[in-house]
TrEMBL record:
Transport as UniProt keyword: yes
Keywords: ATP-binding, Nucleotide-binding, Transport
Record-given protein name: ABC-2 type transport system ATP-binding protein
Domain ABC transporter: 2-238
Cited PANTHER family: ABC TRANSPORTER (PTHR43582:SF5), LINEARMYCIN RESISTANCE ATP-BINDING PROTEIN LNRL (PTHR43582)
Keyword 4Fe-4S listed: no
Transmembrane domains' residue ranges: none
Any Pfam family: ABC_tran
Amino acid sequence: MISTRELTKDFVVSRTETVHAVRGISLDVEPGELVAVLGPNGAGKTTTLRMLTTLITPTAGTATVAGYDVTEHPSQVRRRIGYVGQGNGAGHNQRAGDELIGQGVIYGLDRRAARRRTAELLDALELTELARRKVSELSGGQRRRLDVAMGLVHAPSLLFLDEPSTGLDPQNRANLWDHILRMREQYAMTIVLTTHYLDEADSMAERVVVVDNGQVIADDTAEALKTKLAGDRLALTVAPSNLSRLAELAGKLPGAKEVVAVGDEVSVRVADGPAALPELITAAQQNGVPVAAAQVHRPTLDDVFLNLTGRSLREDNSNGKAAA
Protein backbone atom coordinates (compact mmCIF):
# COMPACT_ATOMS: atom_id res chain seq x y z
CA MET A 1 0.00 0.00 0.00
CA ILE A 2 2.93 2.34 0.76
CA SER A 3 6.51 2.00 -0.40
CA THR A 4 9.17 4.67 0.08
CA ARG A 5 12.86 4.61 -0.71
CA GLU A 6 15.23 7.23 0.68
CA LEU A 7 12.38 9.72 0.95
CA THR A 8 13.86 13.12 1.78
CA LYS A 9 12.57 16.62 2.43
CA ASP A 10 14.66 19.75 2.90
CA PHE A 11 13.30 23.21 3.65
CA VAL A 12 15.45 26.15 2.56
CA VAL A 13 15.09 28.73 5.32
CA SER A 14 17.58 31.21 3.91
CA ARG A 15 20.57 31.33 1.60
CA THR A 16 22.74 29.99 4.40
CA GLU A 17 20.33 27.68 6.23
CA THR A 18 18.57 24.48 5.15
CA VAL A 19 16.44 22.36 7.48
CA HIS A 20 16.74 18.62 6.77
CA ALA A 21 13.28 17.57 8.00
CA VAL A 22 13.25 14.04 6.55
CA ARG A 23 16.54 12.26 5.88
CA GLY A 24 16.07 9.25 3.62
CA ILE A 25 13.14 7.27 5.03
CA SER A 26 12.54 3.83 3.51
CA LEU A 27 9.29 2.22 4.60
CA ASP A 28 6.80 -0.40 3.41
CA VAL A 29 3.20 -0.72 4.62
CA GLU A 30 1.15 -3.71 3.53
CA PRO A 31 -2.60 -3.62 2.78
CA GLY A 32 -4.71 -3.87 5.91
CA GLU A 33 -2.00 -2.87 8.38
CA LEU A 34 -2.43 -0.33 11.16
CA VAL A 35 0.93 1.39 11.57
CA ALA A 36 1.76 4.00 14.21
CA VAL A 37 4.57 6.48 13.58
CA LEU A 38 6.12 7.79 16.80
CA GLY A 39 8.74 10.43 17.41
CA PRO A 40 9.42 13.65 19.29
CA ASN A 41 8.23 17.02 18.05
CA GLY A 42 10.22 18.00 14.97
CA ALA A 43 11.19 14.40 14.16
CA GLY A 44 9.69 14.54 10.65
CA LYS A 45 6.47 12.57 11.22
CA THR A 46 4.01 15.12 9.87
CA THR A 47 6.35 16.13 7.04
CA THR A 48 6.50 12.48 5.97
CA LEU A 49 2.71 12.20 6.01
CA ARG A 50 2.40 15.42 4.02
CA MET A 51 4.67 13.97 1.33
CA LEU A 52 2.76 10.68 1.25
CA THR A 53 -0.53 12.57 0.90
CA THR A 54 0.89 14.79 -1.92
CA LEU A 55 0.56 17.99 0.12
CA ILE A 56 4.26 18.71 -0.34
CA THR A 57 6.77 17.44 -2.90
CA PRO A 58 9.76 15.34 -1.81
CA THR A 59 13.22 16.81 -2.28
CA ALA A 60 14.63 13.39 -3.14
CA GLY A 61 13.75 9.72 -3.03
CA THR A 62 10.61 7.95 -4.18
CA ALA A 63 7.22 7.10 -2.72
CA THR A 64 4.33 5.10 -4.12
CA VAL A 65 0.98 5.20 -2.33
CA ALA A 66 -1.92 2.92 -3.29
CA GLY A 67 0.09 1.94 -6.37
CA TYR A 68 0.84 5.46 -7.67
CA ASP A 69 3.92 7.63 -7.47
CA VAL A 70 3.19 10.66 -5.28
CA THR A 71 5.11 13.01 -7.57
CA GLU A 72 4.07 11.70 -10.99
CA HIS A 73 0.41 10.87 -10.23
CA PRO A 74 -0.70 12.95 -7.23
CA SER A 75 -4.37 13.11 -8.32
CA GLN A 76 -4.56 9.30 -8.46
CA VAL A 77 -3.08 9.08 -4.97
CA ARG A 78 -5.60 11.59 -3.59
CA ARG A 79 -8.53 9.65 -5.01
CA ARG A 80 -7.47 6.58 -3.04
CA ILE A 81 -6.54 8.02 0.34
CA GLY A 82 -8.22 9.76 3.22
CA TYR A 83 -6.37 12.29 5.34
CA VAL A 84 -7.34 13.59 8.77
CA GLY A 85 -4.94 16.37 9.74
CA GLN A 86 -4.16 17.82 13.15
CA GLY A 87 -6.63 20.71 12.86
CA ASN A 88 -10.37 20.53 12.39
CA GLY A 89 -11.10 20.22 8.68
CA ALA A 90 -14.74 21.29 8.57
CA GLY A 91 -15.87 24.91 8.17
CA HIS A 92 -17.11 26.23 11.52
CA ASN A 93 -20.19 27.93 10.05
CA GLN A 94 -21.27 24.94 7.97
CA ARG A 95 -23.70 22.26 9.04
CA ALA A 96 -22.04 18.90 9.70
CA GLY A 97 -24.15 17.02 7.16
CA ASP A 98 -23.64 19.66 4.47
CA GLU A 99 -19.88 19.48 4.91
CA LEU A 100 -19.91 15.74 4.33
CA ILE A 101 -22.14 16.01 1.27
CA GLY A 102 -19.89 18.72 -0.17
CA GLN A 103 -16.81 16.59 0.46
CA GLY A 104 -18.43 13.69 -1.38
CA VAL A 105 -19.24 15.90 -4.38
CA ILE A 106 -15.65 17.15 -4.47
CA TYR A 107 -14.53 13.52 -4.76
CA GLY A 108 -16.83 12.94 -7.73
CA LEU A 109 -19.97 11.50 -6.16
CA ASP A 110 -23.28 12.73 -7.52
CA ARG A 111 -25.45 14.47 -4.93
CA ARG A 112 -27.68 11.44 -4.37
CA ALA A 113 -24.69 9.18 -3.77
CA ALA A 114 -23.07 11.85 -1.57
CA ARG A 115 -26.21 12.11 0.57
CA ARG A 116 -26.43 8.34 0.87
CA ARG A 117 -22.77 8.07 1.88
CA THR A 118 -23.18 10.96 4.34
CA ALA A 119 -26.13 9.26 6.04
CA GLU A 120 -24.12 6.03 6.30
CA LEU A 121 -21.11 7.74 7.90
CA LEU A 122 -23.17 9.89 10.25
CA ASP A 123 -24.87 6.75 11.50
CA ALA A 124 -21.63 4.78 11.84
CA LEU A 125 -19.95 7.59 13.77
CA GLU A 126 -23.02 8.40 15.89
CA LEU A 127 -23.46 11.88 14.43
CA THR A 128 -26.89 11.54 12.81
CA GLU A 129 -28.65 13.73 15.37
CA LEU A 130 -26.02 16.44 14.83
CA ALA A 131 -26.25 16.57 11.03
CA ARG A 132 -28.01 19.95 10.97
CA ARG A 133 -25.91 21.47 13.72
CA LYS A 134 -23.14 23.93 12.85
CA VAL A 135 -19.63 22.60 13.23
CA SER A 136 -18.82 25.40 15.69
CA GLU A 137 -21.53 24.01 17.99
CA LEU A 138 -20.02 20.52 18.17
CA SER A 139 -17.84 19.29 21.02
CA GLY A 140 -14.18 18.45 20.45
CA GLY A 141 -14.87 14.73 20.23
CA GLN A 142 -17.76 15.26 17.83
CA ARG A 143 -15.60 17.46 15.58
CA ARG A 144 -12.89 14.83 15.41
CA ARG A 145 -15.44 12.16 14.51
CA LEU A 146 -16.69 14.51 11.77
CA ASP A 147 -13.10 14.91 10.55
CA VAL A 148 -12.79 11.12 10.33
CA ALA A 149 -16.09 10.97 8.42
CA MET A 150 -14.78 13.57 5.95
CA GLY A 151 -11.66 11.47 5.43
CA LEU A 152 -13.78 8.41 4.69
CA VAL A 153 -16.53 9.90 2.52
CA HIS A 154 -15.02 8.58 -0.72
CA ALA A 155 -14.35 5.09 0.76
CA PRO A 156 -10.53 5.23 0.58
CA SER A 157 -8.46 2.09 0.91
CA LEU A 158 -5.84 3.99 2.93
CA LEU A 159 -6.46 6.44 5.78
CA PHE A 160 -3.85 8.79 7.23
CA LEU A 161 -4.50 10.08 10.76
CA ASP A 162 -2.22 12.85 12.01
CA GLU A 163 -2.60 13.17 15.81
CA PRO A 164 -6.29 12.17 15.60
CA SER A 165 -7.05 12.37 19.33
CA THR A 166 -4.86 15.26 20.47
CA GLY A 167 -6.70 17.50 22.90
CA LEU A 168 -9.47 15.02 23.68
CA ASP A 169 -10.19 13.80 27.18
CA PRO A 170 -9.64 10.05 27.85
CA GLN A 171 -13.32 9.17 27.37
CA ASN A 172 -13.56 10.95 24.02
CA ARG A 173 -10.23 9.45 22.93
CA ALA A 174 -11.51 5.94 23.67
CA ASN A 175 -14.80 6.69 21.93
CA LEU A 176 -13.03 8.02 18.82
CA TRP A 177 -10.85 4.93 18.62
CA ASP A 178 -13.82 2.61 19.01
CA HIS A 179 -15.32 4.28 15.93
CA ILE A 180 -12.07 4.25 13.94
CA LEU A 181 -11.41 0.56 14.59
CA ARG A 182 -15.00 -0.36 13.73
CA MET A 183 -14.76 1.59 10.46
CA ARG A 184 -11.43 -0.04 9.69
CA GLU A 185 -12.95 -3.50 10.05
CA GLN A 186 -16.04 -2.56 8.06
CA TYR A 187 -14.13 -1.10 5.10
CA ALA A 188 -10.91 -3.20 5.29
CA MET A 189 -8.75 -0.09 5.39
CA THR A 190 -5.05 0.39 5.85
CA ILE A 191 -4.34 3.03 8.52
CA VAL A 192 -1.19 5.04 9.16
CA LEU A 193 -1.26 7.34 12.16
CA THR A 194 0.99 9.62 14.11
CA THR A 195 0.29 10.06 17.81
CA HIS A 196 1.82 11.46 20.99
CA TYR A 197 -0.20 9.04 23.08
CA LEU A 198 2.05 6.05 23.58
CA ASP A 199 -0.77 3.92 24.95
CA GLU A 200 -2.63 4.36 21.65
CA ALA A 201 0.31 3.11 19.63
CA ASP A 202 0.90 0.26 22.07
CA SER A 203 -2.67 -1.03 22.11
CA MET A 204 -3.95 -0.14 18.63
CA ALA A 205 -1.07 -0.51 16.18
CA GLU A 206 0.19 -3.76 14.70
CA ARG A 207 3.48 -2.06 13.86
CA VAL A 208 5.30 0.84 15.45
CA VAL A 209 7.76 2.94 13.44
CA VAL A 210 9.97 5.19 15.56
CA VAL A 211 11.31 8.29 13.79
CA ASP A 212 13.97 10.64 15.14
CA ASN A 213 15.89 13.40 13.36
CA GLY A 214 14.10 12.59 10.12
CA GLN A 215 15.14 8.92 10.08
CA VAL A 216 13.54 5.59 10.99
CA ILE A 217 15.39 4.22 14.01
CA ALA A 218 13.11 1.27 14.82
CA ASP A 219 10.33 -0.65 13.08
CA ASP A 220 8.56 -3.66 14.62
CA THR A 221 5.57 -4.68 16.71
CA ALA A 222 5.23 -2.85 20.01
CA GLU A 223 5.85 -6.06 21.96
CA ALA A 224 8.96 -6.92 19.96
CA LEU A 225 10.40 -3.42 20.39
CA LYS A 226 9.78 -3.48 24.12
CA THR A 227 11.32 -6.92 24.50
CA LYS A 228 14.37 -6.37 22.28
CA LEU A 229 15.23 -2.77 23.03
CA ALA A 230 14.11 -2.26 26.62
CA GLY A 231 13.47 -5.54 28.39
CA ASP A 232 11.72 -6.00 31.74
CA ARG A 233 12.72 -4.29 34.96
CA LEU A 234 12.82 -6.24 38.21
CA ALA A 235 12.39 -4.30 41.45
CA LEU A 236 13.11 -6.05 44.77
CA THR A 237 12.85 -4.61 48.27
CA VAL A 238 15.31 -5.73 50.96
CA ALA A 239 16.82 -4.43 54.19
CA PRO A 240 19.33 -1.64 53.42
CA SER A 241 22.11 -3.77 54.92
CA ASN A 242 21.53 -6.38 52.17
CA LEU A 243 21.35 -3.90 49.32
CA SER A 244 24.84 -4.34 47.94
CA ARG A 245 24.71 -8.12 48.17
CA LEU A 246 21.41 -8.29 46.28
CA ALA A 247 22.75 -5.88 43.65
CA GLU A 248 25.73 -8.19 43.17
CA LEU A 249 23.41 -11.18 42.69
CA ALA A 250 21.21 -9.21 40.30
CA GLY A 251 24.22 -8.37 38.17
CA LYS A 252 24.87 -12.10 37.65
CA LEU A 253 21.53 -12.72 35.94
CA PRO A 254 21.85 -13.62 32.24
CA GLY A 255 21.83 -10.42 30.20
CA ALA A 256 21.46 -8.21 33.28
CA LYS A 257 22.01 -4.48 32.79
CA GLU A 258 21.21 -1.20 34.50
CA VAL A 259 21.56 -2.55 38.04
CA VAL A 260 20.57 0.24 40.46
CA ALA A 261 20.56 0.03 44.27
CA VAL A 262 18.89 2.92 46.10
CA GLY A 263 17.42 3.03 49.62
CA ASP A 264 15.89 -0.39 50.15
CA GLU A 265 15.33 -1.31 46.49
CA VAL A 266 17.42 -3.02 43.87
CA SER A 267 16.31 -2.80 40.23
CA VAL A 268 17.77 -4.54 37.22
CA ARG A 269 16.86 -4.70 33.53
CA VAL A 270 16.55 -8.20 32.02
CA ALA A 271 15.17 -9.65 28.80
CA ASP A 272 12.57 -11.93 30.40
CA GLY A 273 11.36 -10.65 33.76
CA PRO A 274 8.89 -13.44 34.67
CA ALA A 275 11.63 -16.05 34.17
CA ALA A 276 14.42 -14.06 35.84
CA LEU A 277 12.52 -13.03 38.99
CA PRO A 278 12.20 -16.51 40.56
CA GLU A 279 15.87 -17.13 39.76
CA LEU A 280 16.95 -13.97 41.56
CA ILE A 281 14.69 -14.61 44.57
CA THR A 282 16.07 -18.15 44.87
CA ALA A 283 19.65 -16.85 44.67
CA ALA A 284 18.85 -14.26 47.35
CA GLN A 285 17.39 -16.88 49.70
CA GLN A 286 20.38 -19.16 49.19
CA ASN A 287 22.67 -16.28 50.14
CA GLY A 288 20.74 -15.28 53.24
CA VAL A 289 19.12 -12.18 51.73
CA PRO A 290 15.38 -12.06 52.60
CA VAL A 291 13.28 -10.34 49.94
CA ALA A 292 10.40 -8.30 51.34
CA ALA A 293 8.70 -7.51 48.00
CA ALA A 294 9.31 -8.09 44.32
CA GLN A 295 7.76 -6.82 41.10
CA VAL A 296 8.21 -7.19 37.36
CA HIS A 297 7.67 -3.98 35.38
CA ARG A 298 6.99 -4.45 31.68
CA PRO A 299 8.67 -1.81 29.51
CA THR A 300 6.75 0.93 27.73
CA LEU A 301 7.32 2.47 24.32
CA ASP A 302 8.82 5.43 26.12
CA ASP A 303 11.41 3.04 27.57
CA VAL A 304 12.13 1.90 24.02
CA PHE A 305 12.70 5.47 22.86
CA LEU A 306 14.83 6.21 25.92
CA ASN A 307 16.91 3.13 25.16
CA LEU A 308 17.35 4.17 21.52
CA THR A 309 18.06 7.88 21.97
CA GLY A 310 18.92 8.51 25.62
CA ARG A 311 15.91 10.79 26.15
CA SER A 312 12.22 10.42 26.92
CA LEU A 313 9.73 10.59 24.07
CA ARG A 314 6.99 11.59 26.52
CA GLU A 315 8.99 14.56 27.79
CA ASP A 316 10.02 15.65 24.29
CA ASN A 317 6.42 15.67 23.13
CA SER A 318 5.01 17.43 26.18
CA ASN A 319 7.67 20.16 26.23
CA GLY A 320 8.21 20.66 22.48
CA LYS A 321 6.58 22.93 19.94
CA ALA A 322 4.34 21.92 17.10
CA ALA A 323 5.37 18.72 15.39
CA ALA A 324 7.03 18.71 12.02
